[in-house]
Design goal:
globular, alpha+beta, 184 residues, 7-stranded antiparallel beta sheet, two-stranded antiparallel ribbon
Length: 184
């Protein structure tokens, strides 16, 4: 990436290197592609108030946070919601996941109502301290904010937890250099 570049390109998708959320400037901590077998499913970018190189540091970072996902293939939105719920459950302590259930249900309802996410469509999940988590589909806020702070932390653990959706994507979201993909 050239010095002074304003965007980072991942899988043909441009991520702004900085965004404004809740009146604060967030930096792109990292971005990468989610693979399922050999298929590219989506790109994801993690925005924080400051760079973080470990899952613990990313989760502990204060202020607003955003995860932004752009679809690289069509996917059933209800199925994606179920996968996210499973990812949250697999990566969160039981008590924390229990507190995030109302938000998890709300996000599942948002995806179920959408029915399908097409190639090129996007969604973001933004956390604002003292305001909660908002879900945006194609740049528009959908529904009310999710008040439980455990929800956003649980959501981040889908990608940053001990059983991430994609280990290579976890490393990229944490700003680490990509490792060569080994195809079987």
């Amino acid at each position: 990436m050239p010095a002074g570049a304003q965007t980072t390109e991942v899988g043909g998708v441009k991520y702004d290197n900085t965004v404004r959320v809740g009146g604060e400037t967030l930096v792109l901590n990292g971005a990468g592609i989610r693979y399922k077998a050999v298929f590219k499913v989506y790109t994801a970018g993690l925005y924080l108030t400051q760079k973080a190189g470990t899952p613990e540091a990313a989760i502990a970072t204060g202020g607003p946070k955003r995860i932004h996902v752009v679809m690289l293939r069509d996917i059933d939105a209800n199925e994606l919601g179920k996968l996210f719920t499973r990812g949250m459950q697999d990566n969160s302590p039981r008590e924390e996941f229990a507190k995030s259930i109302p938000g998890t249900i709300r996000m599942g309802e948002i995806f179920a109502a959408k029915k399908k996410l097409n190639t090129g469509e996007s969604f973001s999940v933004e956390f604002l301290p003292n305001a909660g988590t908002s879900v945006l589909v194609n740049g528009k806020v959908v529904g009310e904010s999710i008040k439980e702070p455990e929800f956003f932390t649980g959501l981040l653990r889908i990608w940053l937890g001990s059983k991430p959706a994609d280990t290579a994507l976890k490393d990229l979201l944490l700003g680490h250099k990509p490792q060569p993909r080994v195809e079987n």
